[in-house]
Amino acid sequence: MSDTTDVEDVESFAARARAWLAANMPRPPDESRRDPSDDSDEEELRRVARSRRLQRLLYDGGFAGICVPSAYGGQGLTLAHQLAFNEEIADYDYPTETQLPTFTPCLPVILEFGTEDQKNTHIPPMLRGETAWMQLLSEPSGGSDVAAALTTAARDGDEWVLNGSKIWTTGAWWADWGLCLARTNWDVPKHRGLSVFMLDMHQPGIEIHRIEMLNGSREFCQEFLTDVRVPESLRVGAVDGGWTVGVRWMLHERTVLGQSPYVTGEPVRRRLGQGPGGGVAPLLQRARDLGLLTDPKASELIGEVFAMSVVGSTLGSHIAEGIRTGRLAEDAGAITRLYVGTSAVRNASIAFELAGLSAIAWSDSEAELGKRGIDYLMRQAACIGGGTTEMSRNVISERVLGMPRERAFDRDVPFRDVPRSAPQR
Amino acid sequence: MFRAVGDQELFQETTRRFLEVEVPLAKVRDLAGTTDGYEPSFWRQGAQLGWTSLLVPEDAGGGSISGHGVVDLALVAYEFGLHAAPGPLIGTNVVAAALGRWGTDDQRAGPLADLLAGDAAGAWAHAEPAPNDGLGDLALTATRSGDGFSLHGVKSPVEAGRQAAYILVSARHESGPTQFLIPSNAPGLMIKPLHGLDMTRRHARLEFDGVTVPSTHLVGRPGSAGANIDWLLDLAVSIQLAEMCGALTWAFDTTVDWAFNRYSFGRPLASYQELKHRFADMKMWLEASCAISADAAAAMDRDQAQRSERVSAGKFYVGRYGPELMQDCVQMHGGIGVTFDHDLHLFLRRIVTDVPTYGTPGQHAARLTGILAGADR
Description:
The complex is a heterodimer of chains A (425) and B (377).
Chain A: H1 10-24, H2 41-61, H3 79-88, H4 102-113, H5 116-127, E1 133-136, E2 152-156, E3 159-170, E4 177-183, E5 194-200, E6 206-210, E7 220-231, E8 235-236, H6 242-254, H7 267-273, H8 280-289, H9 296-324, H10 333-355, H11 367-377, H12 389-400
Chain B: H1 7-22, H2 25-32, H3 40-49, H4 69-83, H5 89-102, H6 105-117, E1 122-125, E2 141-145, E3 148-159, E4 166-173, E5 176-183, E6 189-193, E7 203-213, E8 218-219, H7 226-261, E9 263-264, E10 267-268, H8 273-298, H9 304-333, H10 344-354, H11 361-376
Parallel strand pairs in B: 1-4
Antiparallel strand pairs in B: 2-3, 3-7, 4-5, 5-8, 6-7, 9-10
Helix pairs in contact in B: 1-4, 4-7, 5-6, 5-7, 7-8, 7-9, 7-10, 8-9, 9-10, 9-11
């Protein structure tokens, strides 16, 4: 991770960061407490623009890409420096909207598998906040079975022609670039016929459809790719070697909940504090308003929500340390993912219970309580998005505990002969 | 899974080897039939390894390994849990810590020296029976009587209450919470052994029906012990959490081995997805328990709100999910898991005993809300 053996020690780096942040970085706006699903498109675009400006500010200050080699515009430092910086920036604003998936998993995938040319071309603009990336991974037909991608890339001279559909991409309608997993060979088993491409999202043939969730959020998109032409120079990794890339890709995605060397700020802490249920603060306010702070049942439930977030805040670093010391397999980030999902589900249930009847029918002044009802309807999203908790349990049992893998029916069969769902939409 | 650093590694390893040799599970079963549950020579040797001195300042004859005695002691407690080891670990250390911090010269020279040497055990008489069993409830009274105090009330259950030579009693005085260190042979003190779930630890009921103690038995000034008792509660829980993590680790590792080696319908249990997913949940509970427990021990030096926040979050979590993990281990074993011959119940008994001891998970959750509401006001 570091370019040189002569790196700045963490303490003096932290002191330098502290002084720079105090002089340059704005404090977080109050609106950061707001539920992102409330955003209108205009507000979201404004937030994205602010994130890009903050990222540029970090870049100019010499604090962007702390673990990225300096050859590609980063600082060439270590995870310890990044973690120290995260501590220092905790009380400041930071580029929230453009962190993920740009800085993980997209950036480390390009760092690991990109050519020298690709890295030189694409990583510096990421660090300067000029390009926001997205991941074109899931497909409507596939669900958790990411390697069963049907989106096809066919070779045509120096270009590839992509056709198919991707889904569950966040912010695709304002993103600039995407990493796309596509099938380049149907005559070999599923994992051996995939390739990864970098896709310029501002080009003909890409139609982006916004998906409306049951709570009204429109953050997710579905893309329809029709004869999208991608130059050979934008292929990442080997032809038909895309699953090698994909495995690392998803591993980097899971570090979001642990300690990623490439992510700045506190997405984990915020996520744990603000999952479905809205965190502990509104529950406390509600209990105070109703005189329930001394009610044993209510105070136990509120304390439970708080306890789960305190425990969660210690789990991420505990798992990351376990991975670093070799006590745990590299896939152990799935433990944190499972915790985040299951605790969010529990919190949403508690918040719903404490909100009482106002969670199902509310006046204007009770909108906050009504949201607890809507959050409850969305409860399971925490156990679905970013890989289901069922997949996490598979990963934990098979790759962390070493238990036998599930029997697969698509192993040594050409992919075109593997049974699949009837086409959707 | 508690990470030892530097000198702590050797310290933990020494305790581990000692427990492996001195109290293997067969020996634990033998000791279960005895009155005290442990042998005095075992305890004295443990004290020589450092089990009783970690929370006591050097000028009072103690000393930690790393400069952070609670973390050092948590490593010992983890090993105790892992080996289902008997011995008055928490009570003795709570009393020693109290005397090291607030004891008089006489109390340090006599009782504390005995505890440090392992010649005597200590017991913390704090919990009271229902309806006075809420966190922070204190119904046992101390009233002025001549030059001393007269104690009225009941403490129960008190771990090692009959084995301990020195008993730290928390009482309610008109001026506020007050602590006394009394010898177990104090006139009028009735110590009645209780039946209990745990085969490795003993509990007693202590009845104070006008027990008169001299002022020299005070630990700290009358009425000033509220914050001290709070600290001792956090201390006891943080050590208990480490011990619970050790017991949970034994049960989990044993059950994973079982799942790999036990075949049904021609395949190992570990190959069934339904069971694999439950092992994944158990692994999450175990890792999260260890994470918060290590953090709670490390937080013991911090200010009251932060320290109690970590400790109570830990007791809520480990107290809620620890027994679930244990019972799922039993379920994975099937019938053999509920037999006396299988060792699983030695650990199940300890975990279940720990759940309501020093506050139930629900009480600690409510305590968290109190901390939050106080900070938020």
